[in-house]
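Anyone? Bumping this.
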Amino acid sequence: MDSALIPRGVKRCPFPQFILFIAIVGAVLLWGVYAMLLCWFKGLNQTNMNDFYGFALWIWADLAVIAVGGGAFFTGLLRYIFGKDDLKNIINYAVLIGFICYSSALLILAIDIGQPLRGWFIFWHANVHSMLTEVAFCLSCYFGVLTIEYIPLVLENRQINKVPFFHHLGHNMHEIMAVFAATGAFLSFFHQGSLGGVAGVLYGRPFAYREGLFIWPWTFFLFTWSAAACGPCFTILVTKITETVTRKKLVKDTAIQLLAKISGWMILTYSIAKTADTWYWATVTVPSLGQTLMDFYSNNPFYGIWILILEIAICGFIPAFILITKKGRKNSAALWIAVFLAVTGVCINRWVMVLQIMAIPVLTFENWVLYLPSWQEIATTILPLAYGVILIAISYRYLPVFPNEPELNPIETLPAEEEEAVEPSVELEQELKPAEA
Amino acid sequence: MKIDRRSFLSFLLGGAAGTALSPLPWKLTDDSSIWTQMWPWTPVPEDGEASYVNSSCTLCPGGCGITVRKIDDRAVKIEGMKRHPVNNGGLCSLGLSGLQLLYGPTRVKTPLKRVGKRGRGRWEKISWKDAVSEVAKTLGDLREKGQSHTVGFISGSDRGTVPRLFERFLTVYGSPNLIRTPSIIDSYELALHLMQGAQALPGFDFENANFILSFGSGIVDGWGSPVRMFRANSAWRDTGGKVIQIEPRLSNTAAKSDKWIPINPGTEAALALGIAHIIIKESLYDAEFINNYSEGFEDWKAFVLGEYGPDSVATITGIDSTTIIALARSFARASKPLAICGRGQGTTPGSLNECTAVHALNALVGNINKKGGVFAVAEPDYINWPEVEMDATAAAGMQKNRLDGAGSKKYPFSRYLLNRLPQAINSGKKYPLKALFVAGANPLYTMSDSKAVKKAFDKVPFIVSFSSYMDETAQNADLILPNHNYLERYEDIPTPAGMPQPVIGLSRPVVEPQFNTKHVGDVIILLAKAMGGTLSDAFAWDSYDACLKETMGYKWQVIIEKGFWSYPDFVAGPREESFDTVSGKFEFAPKETGSLKPFKPVKIEGDKTNYPLLLMPYDSIRLANGAMGDPPFVMKSVDDTVLKGTDVFIEINPKTAGEHGLREGQLAMLSTPVGQAKVKVHLFDGIMPGLVALPRGLGHTAYDEYLAGKGINVNELIGPVEDPVSGLDAAWGVRAKLAKA
Amino acid sequence: MFPFSFEWIWDMGHVVFMGGLWYALTILGIGMSYCIIKAAMDACRGNDEHHH
Amino acid sequence: MKHKNAKKYGMVIDLDKCTGCGSCMVACMAENNVPFRKDESNKVLSITWLRVYQLTNGKPFPNTDICYLPRPCMHCEGQHEGHSPCVSVCPAVATDYNTETGIVSQIYTRCFGCRYCMASCPYHARYFNWWDPVWPDGMEKYLSPNVSPRMRGVVEKCSFCFHRYQLAKEKAFKEGRREIKEDEYQTACTQACPAGAITFGDLNNPNHAVSRMVKPDPKHHGRPTNPNAFRLLERLGTNPKVYYLSSREWVRRAGDNYLENEAKYKKTVHQG
């Protein structure tokens, strides 16, 4: 039915099955959309946020998706700037995942603010000293970059590519992709950092506050670092999940292994840096403010020191050691565990840097305040997930996301209805060497 | 032109791009944000000419001066009146939120007549003319049948022109049953009457005192004239004045005091006598006063020395004897000591013996009618109306005994005993109450043992409420004749509670009446005129305003300009003229009080086996517990350790809670011999083990959604206990049981 | 955001921050413009030189 | 930027006098058109620009003690003037540090409700309008035109009754004066406090009562030199303009975090 749209040389499930899948995920999406509309029309009283929890689940979700979406910029950086050619096999997917993550983040932000119709004031009346302003600008710009990086892939759809203008546009964009990628890396560095800065500059909250370099608290660098380290893990994780779901090998091991190895070293160095930061903060910064480390991990029913150990040791060093060793990352199960732990680790980090900050009392006569999100918050947080799955499904079905796929999954009999235009090999060639074209 | 898919797509894309590049999206973005900045459903207060009106607050007996800020004809803010003798600019939270009462949803907007069963909340609007003639007819019928004495009138006050109009009306009509709502003032009036022979209000010169011995009086919890007390308390901080607070629970007053002495509840009288014992034994008393101006000291001395040694008092009160001795010495040695009583806000009269014992302490240190002491403040006699002419019916009616037993053989000195009214009605022994008027009071809420009160009210066939608000009593009335709100009417406010000099405040219309209400004074005048005869003759005024103006005479001009009339050169008469007792002296042991009998604590309801705990109500300045309930702003200031959602917290010592297996925030069932209620547990170290405390002022069933249905009315759990001498309510609490719910 | 909006101040913060922002936006803008214009021109010319 | 005759309005609250009566809270609500809802007992959802906290010394009966602590917005000066925790983070300049008065303002029509300022404020002095403000029918009549009611979705907080400053300035200007007198500009809570526990004035003016009471040390961002005076969370370096006085050691200690067995205030390493 939609075979004319499906890339050549690959096999896709029957259309009705595809539609059924979309419908099921779509139902979840609609649930999220309903919750989103509730929040927009009735206001944020639909959430369980309160005056102690100005930042809550959504801000965590934002920080987390941007962190794991960091795979896009870091892979792009490695691919286009450092010339790690093996990564060309995964860059499309990394870009797609990044695009989903960033568009989700923007959507969640649009729900999260109390006056969505005035959201643009953050640009118009920008306070250049606010980390959030930096986040907003870089985030939007980088989302633009991701769109630019995603467009050529869209243009490669068999039917779209038939239009000469789109065909040439895609080609031209490929040609100067390094420029865009460089800009993206620059923007990413700043907004990932600024997201860390968001917490680090809170000098009224000893749990969040970090000293730093010039205007940048240490969290600025730690966030960029952790996003660069764990983002690729998320790319690998999603790739692995996609491969499991489609029951196909989609990306060559070389690409995965290379990314895993770089990621492993990044996680290791990050974990060391994070440990050093935590150590300094716990032994110098916090005592100078009259508190001890354990003040932040006791007297409440949830946040114990376990969360710090879980974040740094279990979800930091363990995946790092797995990924830096050849044996570790070659072992499929270990790789799975490592990327899962790394992604969990960065999500926990973002959680504590948003929600635990809010939970901890600073005034001596206040108490810990815990919070459970309302269903509307959960639904709107799941919404991007559903949207991501749908976008991946559509992209996978109609776009040549995985250049290795035809090669890794040769189809014995070619589809009956042949159409003119580009040879698959040529298409692949173009995909493989855009810079030389 | 042929439209194929391609050109259609191009058209769409081109159109989208064109629109995006046009100013339209930018304009829409801008417009939508401007719209959010002026949402039509977010009110924009109209601006106008600002002006200020001085008036008096009548929401409590405190009598604070207020200055109301107006924008055109709207009142927008109430502030304390600067340089007012009572409050000098400060104001309590209730007074500050008065506009929420004025403009609030609880106002009764027009005369209402009950439809259907009483208390169901179904009303029909009627005209003032019909309302007045209906009341006149009912009263006329009763009078014709010679039952004028079966008409009762519950009033929040008996001073000032409005209550005096009630009194005048009842007198000419022929009923002795005007009843004032009770408070510690009742006990103090009795004490002054018996010990000093005075018909007067107690006045306390806190401003000049420097050692306050408070037997549980909530100096900063709303006792007396609250703002004045706050100011005095702050002045003591500056001048080094000391406050000793004696009560079993760490109230705000106890926390602010220089020393908090926890005491076994209900044993305050014994402590006062124990202190007297030391003072007498160590000859620390004012011999000049005792020798020249007192009577019965020797008898009393023998009694006190015999019975109230520090050790036995220590046993009764739970305060160790060294503390008692030290306390007595510092009290007697202070240059300006002052002892006061009346638990919390003084909402219940308490035991008369306790009051006389405390008052005797003041006499011991010669502190009567003296700077820094207690004054007997006679009411300013500005109300001089022509004598009424009573016809035979009226005279006969007035001859009848009061239904509440005040002035009877049993309680000859008491003037009003509202606490005895429900019993009198329910027992039906004397005579039935055929009609009841309620003004400035909300007895169905404020009286203890609410169930019995409700039952009594159900027996009264005709109840008229003059309330401006739909309170519990109004809800259960047959007819509501809504009074103007206090910011819409004139009224004189005679000497606020506890003031040592007479002051007359003036409440005046700040805004035009907002609804179809009528001044209660006018209603009484109209009613009298409608009934004709002697009644009509006794109320010759055209209107209440005319009556007030005439009454005030030459003071009117001053009071209108200044907002109050004060007596700056007021001095109590010389000692020789101070006492109007038979002896002409201060009576230490008036025989009527039986004060020479050994101390017996007030027997509160309940037995120890079934009810191992003691429940005490406590007063909070953030919870109005009288005729007025909390407006929304004040409710908002109530702590979440007092009320959470609709659950009230009961204060309990962690030790006691542990014994009962109760944890913070847990739901528990509180039972007393009178009733039971679900409460939440709040562990509070500041309460004596074995004691539990609930706040007064919650558990309203009337008023608006901001107040009604939250917490429980502690009066539903406590029954009145008659003081053997005064007949007033002496209950300070009740025995209770607390179990996991 | 723009030097002509009323809260703009010519200080280090604004110059560096907005400088960086406009720099990035300019690159993206020029880059995309280049791609679009060139694609339009290529399409008109029927250029397909890159097809090997 | 900095005015030569700049004021630094501040507040001194005498906790020995404060009785916790709540007048300040209510005066503030009445003055500033603060909305209210049916249930205000959940204090993390209750807009109280000025909130009175109850502090306890934690000792068992009968050595228990309580103290009330009214907490308006602290109008933090920050590490350098204007670097308040909230002002520095607001992305849209919707909260501003007025260098002429030292007052931290909130511009409701500018705020788009990101709540970053709330996250930054250790005093929980900022409140969000989770609901549309609704007054029962007829009650809008008492709303003051000097303070605009806030729409849903924006943050609000104590403004030190800034509109009163503007009215006082206007009046002074009409009377041909440049300066306003000490008593001409007072906040609603100061005026209403029955205990006279609140004093308000210019900390830069040594003749104003506030300066005389706490003796702020200009070399240390106004740190009080009166031994009975303290500021909340002094060590964070927020440099509040609200001071507290207490003769009780435990109350003063409750104003900040201290390490166990820590004798007294140590200099923080905080750089900002």
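Late reply, but here is one note on the structure posted above: The first helix of chain C runs from residue 12 to 45.
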